[in-house]
Amino acid sequence: MNRKQGRVAAATAAALSVVLAGCSSGNNTAAGSDGPVTIEMWGWGETQYTQPIVDKFNSTHTDIKLKYVKQADDTSTAANVRNAVAAGKGVPCLVQNWGGAEVPSLAAEGLLADVTEYVEPYVEKGVFNKAAPAGAQAGGKYYGVPSGSQPSFMLINRAVYDKYGVDVPKTWDDVITAGKTLKKHGVYVMNMAGEDPSTLVGLVQQAGGSWYGIDGDSWKVDFLSPESLKAADVVQQLVDNDLVANQTYMDKPALIKYFDSGKMVSLVTQVWQLGAYEIDYKKSLGDWQAIDLPQFSDATQFTTMAHGAAELIPKGCEHLKEAVEASVWKMTSKDAINASYNSQTKSYSWPGAIPDPSPWVDSAVPSKLFGTHKSETKEVILKSVKAGRDSWVVGPNYTGVFAELQDQWAQVAAKKITVREALEHMQKFTVDDLKSKNINVES
């Protein structure tokens, strides 16, 4: 960060309370006459899945070695990293991005190292897809290695669509039109759980918007941008016309049974969910079709939301260059992706950072879920990857803001307030909350 952004960092760090917990006693050892640099990597993924990747790296590299130190879970990982950075010792060089963590807020907290000079050459070489780098950046600098995202697309119960003569939607206006026809037959076009505002968040991202931004030494907040209001209009029409179900995600068995019933026939999804659908669906197995993510009617190019993440590099890592090299290999090399193969699921970890994941797409497509439409799924996934864009910035108080948004969303779903009223509330709430934490903000 520059000096102005440093003031944001200082203010944010002062505002955040952290509970420090014990960390690993391991260390990142330097190369010398007796051996290579050892890069310690922290995460909570099961060793049986992570160790093969580590072993493959170590068997193909002589100057750098990886050591995986398994943490209990994402919460303890976060606490242990904060503990290590504060103590200035025992700091790992690579850390799995824990739940809810985002590079801008963690960089502002002072937890991450600036590795721009080591990451940028890889970006310039084109080893990452276009959307991936944004997830590792804050203020134009890199604080980790891009890990990318999963491609987004839509699943529809094509059997039900065909039964009622409903056209496959290409735009969000088409989704609304389809919903009005399906409603006559007691079928909802989508599901919007009252506790989950991800539909709105995703639409804002697809429109190219973001509720946060950085301007010099201040955070910018704009919940009422044209992109946000465009997304709000789609949601409002779906709600006003009673086109969406409100099945909760809190009761998964009931939710899956409902999705499988044919009473809800469209959902935005990602690759990682497909295997579970094939296992869980009984009645509708073979009825589903993957289609391109519907677009806004005024879109000038096909776009999908692709907000990515990063493998974090904490401040205090003694071998930044080597840490970046090892992480880039894990995210982008054919050897690393192949080493991630899971014999139980017969699939690979999705290579979300690379420009062309086509060699690994077939294993991500279940054999029975799509019936006669299976062959089309690969093209849908690859088109989504190519169209992925990431404009989304997460601010330093987003955890609390999201909780407030969930409350507002529940009221939207219950028709107690409009989406615009919810966004107006969130604008004031977010700005006031940042000011209460003594963080510079403009709106």
Radius of gyration from the CA trace? 23 Å
**At the first level of CATH, what is the class of the largest domain?**
Alpha Beta
Number of discrete helical segments: 16
Briefly note the CATH topology name of the largest domain.
D-Maltodextrin-Binding Protein, domain 2
- Approximately how much beta-strand content do the residues carry? 5-15%
Average pLDDT, to the nearest integer? 91
- Helical content stands at 40-55%
User: In the CATH classification, which architecture of the largest domain applies?
Assistant: 3-Layer(aba) Sandwich
The figure for the number of domains is 2
- What is the CA–CA distance across the termini? 22 Å
Overall geometry:
globular
Could you describe the 3D structure shown?
The protein is an alpha/beta fold. It folds into 2 domains: 3-149 and 307-362, D-Maltodextrin-Binding Protein, domain 2, CATH 3.40.190; 152-305 and 373-442, D-Maltodextrin-Binding Protein, domain 2 (3-Layer(aba) Sandwich). 42% of the residues lie in helices and 14% in strands. It is built from 16 helices and 17 strands. The protein has helices at residues 3-15, 47-60, 74-87, 103-108, 116-125, 158-163, 172-183, 198-206, 226-240, 252-260, 271-280, 320-332, 334-339, 374-387, 398-413, 419-436, and strands at residues 37-43, 64-70, 94-95, 137-138, 141-142, 144-148, 152-157, 190-191, 212-215, 218-221, 244-245, 266-270, 288-291, 304-305, 309-312, 388-389, 441-442. A 3-stranded parallel β-sheet has the order 2-1-3. Strands 12-7-13 form a 3-stranded antiparallel β-sheet. Strands 9-10-17 form a 3-stranded mixed β-sheet. β4 (137-138) and β5 (141-142) form a beta hairpin. The radius of gyration is 23 Å and the shape is globular. The two termini are 22 Å apart. Mean pLDDT is 91; it is low at 1-27.
